[in-house]
From TrEMBL:
<dbReference type="GO" id="GO:0045892">
    <property type="term" value="P:negative regulation of DNA-templated transcription"/>
</dbReference>
<dbReference type="GO" id="GO:0003700">
    <property type="term" value="F:DNA-binding transcription factor activity"/>
</dbReference>
<dbReference type="InterPro" id="IPR005471">
    <property type="entry name" value="Tscrpt_reg_IclR_N"/>
</dbReference>
<dbReference type="Pfam" id="PF01614">
    <property type="entry name" value="IclR_C"/>
</dbReference>
<dbReference type="InterPro" id="IPR036388">
    <property type="entry name" value="WH-like_DNA-bd_sf"/>
</dbReference>
<dbReference type="InterPro" id="IPR050707">
    <property type="entry name" value="HTH_MetabolicPath_Reg"/>
</dbReference>
<dbReference type="GO" id="GO:0003677">
    <property type="term" value="F:DNA binding"/>
</dbReference>
<dbReference type="InterPro" id="IPR014757">
    <property type="entry name" value="Tscrpt_reg_IclR_C"/>
</dbReference>
<keyword id="KW-0805">Transcription regulation</keyword>
<keyword id="KW-0238">DNA-binding</keyword>
<dbReference type="InterPro" id="IPR036390">
    <property type="entry name" value="WH_DNA-bd_sf"/>
</dbReference>
<feature type="domain" description="IclR-ED">
    <location>
        <begin position="77"/>
        <end position="261"/>
    </location>
</feature>
<protein>
    <submittedName>
        <fullName>DNA-binding IclR family transcriptional regulator</fullName>
    </submittedName>
</protein>
<keyword id="KW-0804">Transcription</keyword>
<dbReference type="InterPro" id="IPR029016">
    <property type="entry name" value="GAF-like_dom_sf"/>
</dbReference>
<feature type="domain" description="HTH iclR-type">
    <location>
        <begin position="14"/>
        <end position="76"/>
    </location>
</feature>
<dbReference type="Pfam" id="PF09339">
    <property type="entry name" value="HTH_IclR"/>
</dbReference>
């Protein structure tokens, strides 16, 4: 006899929680807040559904709405939750002086990002002394793995089957970020990054704004964070990139060692 298939069980309310969580992430990722139109469009929800969920989150203090602009912003409860979670997950204090040193030595804007599921989230930004800057990245901004230099560095040190699974989960990358993010060119950049040790993003997010990134590893050798640099194209010339890469890798190694030591 054929074995009967058991009906798939779903957690009651899981879809609503997933939608609300997605809205929370999108609100938190926008430095100046986000409009209802933007949130509904980017989340794929109707305006009425997005508004209903946002209103419920506002009642709980998880989001707030600016009276003048009507834009949605992170709420006070998120701050309180974050301070509690920081004791376990936050390593920004370990990274702060290293990010500052990276900015001073290169004169470019320097960043510290963490992997969160299939994205990187910027945790720290330190401005360099060079007067022309790129504003592609700032605290709270998220990018899919393999798009910004931080995520490219992290993804390049994943096992091949993890990269395959990631690309299968995200067929939308070329449509959203351009044909340079088709599977084949992305795999080529990953291979180059792994061989070189650091990632180079040649203006693929914003034309003329270049980035470089190096992975930071946990005690088990998994890439969970990244240091990165961004700046205008002529500051990342072929002659200067090797020196920037060496400085970036030295700082990433220092932070990897510091994180491992702090978590023993």
């Amino acid at each position: 006899m054929e074995q009967q298939q058991r009906p798939r069980r779903t957690v009651p309310g899981a879809q609503a929680i997933a939608r609300a969580s997605d809205l929370l992430r999108r609100v938190s990722a926008s430095a100046d807040g986000a409009s209802l139109h933007e949130l509904a469009r980017d989340s794929g929800l109707s305006r009425s559904t997005a508004h209903r969920l946002l209103t419920a989150l506002r009642v709980e203090g998880l989001v707030d709405q600016d009276d003048a602009s009507a834009r949605w912003l992170p709420g006070p409860e998120l701050y309180l939750m974050g301070t509690v979670a920081a004791a376990r997950y936050d390593v920004t204090e370990l990274a702060r002086d290293i990010v500052r040193s990276l900015a001073v030595k290169t004169e470019e804007s320097a960043f510290f990002s963490v992997r969160r599921a299939d994205e990187t989230v910027c945790l720290l930004r330190e401005e360099g002394s060079f007067p022309i800057r790129s504003f592609v990245l700032s605290e709270g901004v998220r990018f899919p793995l393999g798009v910004a230099s931080a995520g490219l560095a992290i993804l390049s040190f994943q096992d091949d089957h993890d990269v395959d699974a990631y690309l299968e989960r995200h067929p939308e990358l070329p449509e959203r970020w351009g044909r340079a993010h088709d599977a084949q060119p992305l795999r080529s950049r990953l291979a180059e990054t792994k061989a070189r040790g650091y990632a180079v993003n040649p203006g693929l997010i914003v034309e003329g704004s270049w980035g470089m990134g190096a992975a930071v590893f946990d005690r088990d050798g998994h890439p969970q964070w990244a240091l990165s640099l961004t700046g205008v194209e002529f500051r990342f010339s072929p002659e200067r990139r090797p020196a920037l890469g060496r400085t970036l890798l030295a700082h990433a190694h220092q932070l990897t060692s510091r994180i491992a030591g702090a978590r023993r």
